[in-house]
Write a structure and sequence with these properties.
Number of strands: 0
Helix content: over 70%
Largest sheet: none
Low-confidence stretches: 1-5, 194-206
Shape: flat
Order of helices and strands: HHHHHHHHHHHHHHHHH
Distance between the termini: 28 Å
Length: about 375
C-alpha cells in the first residue's frame, strides 16, 4: 500500500517533538481540568465566605491555565506538525513525484500522513498518565490552608476522550488535509527536488557579502524555524522566571513543575530547529568548506541569522510571565487573603538572561564546531 511506501510508523516515532508538546499540554490541562471537575462536584459543601472566595479563584485559575497554556501548546504543536510534513515532503519529493507520475492521487498519498497522529496519541497518553502521578500532591497543595473540603482524585472519562482520543484523531485529519494541500503541485516539481544554493570562491568584501547573503537566504527558506526559535527562548524566559515566583505565590511543587516543563519545551524546540537548519543546509555547508570558508563563517551564514529571533522571544517571555502572574494575583485571587503582591522581579530576569545567553550561545558554538564533522565525500556524492 502507498501508506507503507511513503510514511511508516517508524517515521512517526521520529516526531518526538510533537509527542513532547502534546505530553506537556495534556499533563497541565488534565491536572487542572480534573481538579476543576472534582472541585465543582463538591460545590454544595462550600458554606464559608473564605472558602467561597478560594473556590471561585481556583476555578478561574483552572480555566485560565488550561486556555492559555493548552491553547499556546496546541497552536505550537500544529505549527510543528505542518513543519514536519513540509520537511518530509521536501526530503522525499522524488519518491512522491514518482508515485504521482504512476497515477496515485494526492489524497491517496496524503492518507499515509495520518500515522503522524500516533505521535500525538503517544504524547497525550503519556501526559495524561503522568498527571495522575502528581494529582494527589497537587490537590493537597491547592487546599493547603484547609479552607476547602478534602477532595479525592477521581477519574473523569470525559477528559480522557477530550485530551487523548479527540486530539489524536484531529491531528491525524489535520495531517492528511495539510498534506493534500502541499502535494497539490505538478509531479515534475517534486521530481526536481529542492533547489541548491551554489557558492563561489570569493575573498575580501565579496566573501563577507556572500556570508550575509547566505544567512538571509537560510532565513527566507526556513521561516517556520524562526517561530520555533522564538518559542524556544519564550519558554525558557517565561517558565524559568515564573518558576522563581511560584514559591511565594503558589508552592515549590508548582515552581518545579513550571521550571521542568519550560526547560524541556525550550531545549526540545531548539534542538529540532537547529538540527533541521544544519541538516537542510548540509550541501551548502559542504560547498562553503570546499571553497575555503571556516567553521565560524559557516556558522554565521547558517545559524547566526536566528539570534535576533531568540532574544526577541526572551523579551516576549518576560513580558508574558509578568502579565500572566499580575492578572492572576490582582484579578483572579483579588478576594483571597494571604496572597502576596506581585511585582516584576528584575534580579531574576537578569539572572535568567545571563543563563540564557550562556546556554544559547554555547549551544550555537557547539553546533558550529559540529559542522566540521559533516562528511564532505558522502554529501557531495548524493
Amino acid at each position: 500500500m502507498v501508506t507503507v511506501m511513503i510514511v511508516s510508523i517508524k517515521d512517526s516515532v521520529k516526531l518526538f517533538g510533537i509527542s513532547i508538546m502534546a505530553c506537556c499540554a495534556v499533563f497541565v490541562c488534565n491536572m487542572f481540568l480534573n481538579y476543576y471537575l472534582d472541585l465543582t462536584a463538591a460545590a454544595d459543601l462550600i458554606n464559608d465566605f473564605r472558602a467561597q472566595s478560594l473556590y471561585d479563584a481556583q476555578l478561574m485559575t483552572s480555566k485560565v491555565v488550561c486556555s492559555v497554556s493548552g491553547g499556546c501548546l496546541a497552536i505550537t504543536t500544529i505549527a510543528m506538525l505542518f513543519f514536519y510534513i513540509k520537511h518530509y515532503i521536501d526530503s522525499h519529493s522524488k519518491e512522491i513525484g514518482i508515485l504521482k507520475a504512476l497515477g496515485y492521487s494526492d489524497l491517496k498519498i496524503a492518507k499515509g500522513f495520518s500515522v503522524f497522529g500516533l505521535s500525538v496519541f503517544t504524547g497525550c497518553l503519556a501526559g495524561y498518565l503522568m498527571s495522575f502521578l502528581i494529582m494527589p500532591a497537587f490537590y493537597e497543595k491547592q487546599n493547603d490552608k484547609g479552607y476547602l473540603p478534602d477532595i479525592p482524585v477521581n477519574f473523569n472519562f470525559i477528559l480522557f476522550v477530550l485530551l487523548v482520543i479527540l486530539p489524536s484523531i484531529l491531528f491525524a485529519l489535520i495531517a492528511v488535509g495539510y498534506s493534500v494541500r502541499k502535494l497539490n503541485q505538478p509531479c515534475v516539481n517534486l521530481l526536481k527536488g529542492l533547489a541548491k544554493v551554489k557558492g563561489k570562491n570569493r575573498s575580501g568584501k565579496d566573501k563577507k557579502d556572500f556570508v550575509a547573503e547566505m544567512r538571509s537566504s537560510v532565513l527566507r527558506s526556513r521561516k517556520t524555524l524562526v517561530f520555533f526559535i522564538i518559542f524556544s527562548s519564550f519558554c525558557f524566559s517565561a517558565m524559568v522566571q515564573m518558576s522563581a515566583s511560584m514559591k511565594d505565590l503558589s508552592s515549590e511543587m508548582m515552581g518545579i513543575m513550571t521550571f521542568v516543563i519550560g526547560v524541556v519545551l525550550a531545549f526540545t524546540t531548539l534542538y529540532i530547529s537547529t538540527t533541521t537548519v544544519i541538516r537542510s543546509n548540509q550541501k551548502n555547508i559542504a560547498m562553503m568548506r570546499v571553497y575555503g570558508y571556516s567553521s565560524a563563517e559557516c556558522k554565521r551564514s547558517v545559524l547566526d541569522g536566528y539570534r535576533p529571533a531568540a532574544y526577541i522571544g526572551f523579551v516576549i517571555g518576560s513580558v508574558y510571565q509578568y502579565a500572566l502572574l499580575k492578572i492572576a494575583v490582582d484579578v483572579v485571587f483579588a478576594g483571597v487573603k494571604g496572597v502576596p503582591e506581585y511585582n516584576f522581579d528584575f534580579p531574576v530576569c537578569f539572572i535568567t538572561l545571563a543563563v540564557f545567553i550562556v546556554v544559547y550561545e554555547g549551544i550555537m558554538f557547539a553546533y558550529g564546531k559540529s559542522m566540521k564533522r559533516i562528511p564532505l565525500k558522502q554529501i557531495m556524492s548524493e
